[in-house]
Amino acid sequence: MEDKKVLLSGIQPSGDLTLGSYLGAIKNWSALAREFDCYYFMADMHTITVRQDPAQLRKHTLEQLASYIACGLDPEENTLFIQSHVHQHAELGWVLQCFTMFGELSRMTQFKDKSAKHAENINAGLFAYPSLMAADILLYQPDFVPVGEDQKQHVELTRDVAGRFNSLYGDVFKIPEPYIPKVGARVMSLQTPTAKMSKSDEDPNGCVYLKDDNDTVMRKFKRAVTDSETCVRYDRENKPGISNLMEIYSACTGKTYEEIQREFDGKGYGEFKPAVGEAVLSVTGPIRDEANRLLKDKSYLEQVYRTGAEKAGAIANRTLRKVYKKVGFVPR
Ligand code: TYM
User: Fold this and answer.
1) Is the full-model pTM beyond 0.90?
2) Catalytic residue among 59, 117, 199, 267
3) Which atom of ligand 1 is nearest to the CA of 43?
4) In contact, 142 and 6? CB cutoff 8 Å
5) Ligand 1, atom 19: nearest CA belongs to which residue?
6) Per-residue three-class SS string for the chain
7) Mean pLDDT over each residue of the chain, to the nearest integer
8) Is 114 a known active-site residue?
C-alpha cells in the first residue's frame, strides 16, 4: 500500500453526471484503481460558487457517490468521500489563497466563462476557487490528477502554487501531474459541437446524462448536429459534430478513427448516429441501473462516505499540520 503511487480527483455535484465527465474523468479512474492509491471526492464546496438549490445539491451529491461506485470504483479499494466532510480542504484552501496571485486567478478560463455566465454573482469564491482546488489536491500528495482537458489549467496552477510554497518552506508538497485521456478529454455538446458538453447545458439535447434512459440517449444521438457531407471522417475543424461522435464512439468501443472510418465507409449518418448511441448505452446503461440500485441503499452509501471521510481526513490532517507548522502557526 505504502509504495503505491497516489491518484486524486473530484467532480462537482452541481448537476447530473454527464457523458463528458464519465469519458473525460471517471472512466480512467476505475481503470487505475488497482495500480494506485486512489482518492475520489464529491466537490460540493466548489458548487456553491454558483447558487445551488440545497435539496438538489444533497441529492446530486449522493447520486454522484452511487455513480462512482457503479462506474467500478470499489469503496474497498478507493477512498470515496464528500469534500465538505474533510474540513482540512477549507483550511488549506485559505492558506493557499495567500500563495496564489490575483493575476494568476484572473487568467483562469473557467473563471472568465463562469463570471460571464453568472454576471450577477461574481463572488470571491468563484474567483479564488482554484486555490481550493489546489488544496483538494495537495492535501493528499498525489502523483497524478486524472481530469479532462478543461481542468488542466487548474492543475497547472496547483503545480505553480505548490512550487512557490516549497521554494519558501522546503519540500512540503509533492508536485502532481495532470493525467489527461487520449480520447474523450473534451467531449462536446451534441447540439453545439464547438462547445464543451456540460452539466449546466441550456439545451438538454446537447448533453447526455449517465442517468438518461435508453430512449432518451438514442433520441439525443439521432438528433446530434452533423454536417452536409455525409461522410464519416475525422476532421475537428471542418466536421466538429462528426468528429465529436467519432471520439465518443472510439472512447466507448476502443476502435481507432481509421477503424471507424472503414466501418462506416459508404454508410450515411443515419446509420452512424444510432450506432454511437448504442455504443454509449452499452457502457452507460449498466452504470445507470447499478447506480439506481445503490441509491436505494442509503445506509450503505452513508457507511461508504463516513469511512471515506475518516481515511481522507487522516491523510489530509498530516499535510495540514505540516503546513501550519511551516507558516508559523502555534500548535494547539
Ligand atoms: P467538473 O465537475 O466540471 O468536471 C469533472 C471532471 O470531468 C471532466 N469533464 C469533461 N471531460 C471531457 N469532456 C467534457 N465535456 C467534460 N466535462 C467535464 C473535467 O475535466 C473533470 O475532470 N474543478 C473541478 C472539480 C475539482 C477537482 C478538484 C478535480 C475540484 N477539486 C481536485 C480534480 C482535483 C471541476 O469543476 O470539474
Assistant:
1) yes
2) 199
3) 30
4) yes
5) 148
6) CCCCCEEEEEECCCCCCEHHHHHHHHHHHHHHCCCCEEEEEECHHHHCCCCCCHHHHHHHHHHHHHHHHHCCCCCCCEEEEEHHHCCHHHHHHHHHHCCCCHHHHHCCHHHHHHHHHCCCCCCHHHHHHHHHHHHHHHCCCCCEEECCHHHHHHHHHHHHHHHHHHHHHCCCCCCCEEECCCCCCCCECCCCCCCECCCCCCCCCCCCECCCCHHHHHHHHHCCCCCCCCCCCCCCCCCHHHHHHHHHHHHHHCCCHHHHHHHCCCCCHHHHHHHHHHHHHHHHHHHHHHHHHHHCCHHHHHHHHHHHHHHHHHHHHHHHHHHHHHHCCCCC
7) 95
8) yes
**Residue 202, pLDDT above cutoff 90:** no
- For ligand 1, the distance from its centroid to the CA atom of residue 327, given in whole angstroms, is 30
pLDDT tens for each residue of 213-223:
999 999 999 99
Q: List pLDDT tens digits, range 41-57.
A: 999 999 999 999 999 99
